[in-house]
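Quick start: read one record
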Amino acid sequence: MCWGSEADNGADEAREREEARQGRVDASYGKIDEIFGGYDPKTATGKQFYDDRRSDYMGWATPQIERNRDRAFEDLRASLARAGISQSSIASDKRAEGEALMRQAMVDATTKADDHAGTIQSNLADAEANLRQQAAVLADVDQISNMAMAQARAKSQPPLYDPVLDVFGELTANLSTQADLERRKQARYPSGLFGQSRSDTLIRS
């Protein structure tokens, strides 16, 4: 009996099966690289993809911020006019405050745009890593390819955007109190341009 020959044949078959299996695993890795390669931020294509996602968010957020600013400035103009202080130092301070709020709102929006792009990048990286683990187990090129395409489509979508916070809401807060203080200051230090003081009248009589 040729026990040694049969054992050698079995070992050869097992080795061949494992080599074939590893070949399918490597081919699966290749499919994953092909599908997810366009999302690699180290490549020009991947960098452009994430820049576009940032632009998408800014294109969504900026008009809302501008509408909030315009509405707040219109409310401010009306409030200043009602209080009779449209040309006062309070008015100048409030306008400067509104411009500062606008600048900060745009900085915050840019930060959120970066966060959204980062979230997409992280989701894609997690999906790719998970697919590689599954590829090593399944060794099925077609299945992994289909899974990779589905995951890439799903994970490359932007997350839901939170509503833009209206940072201009406090622009007209306490304006009536400030107007009262302004009028008291003016009353305390009259310009002397209108009317005469009592001492002036006594000197001339």
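DSSP finds six helices and no strands in the chain.
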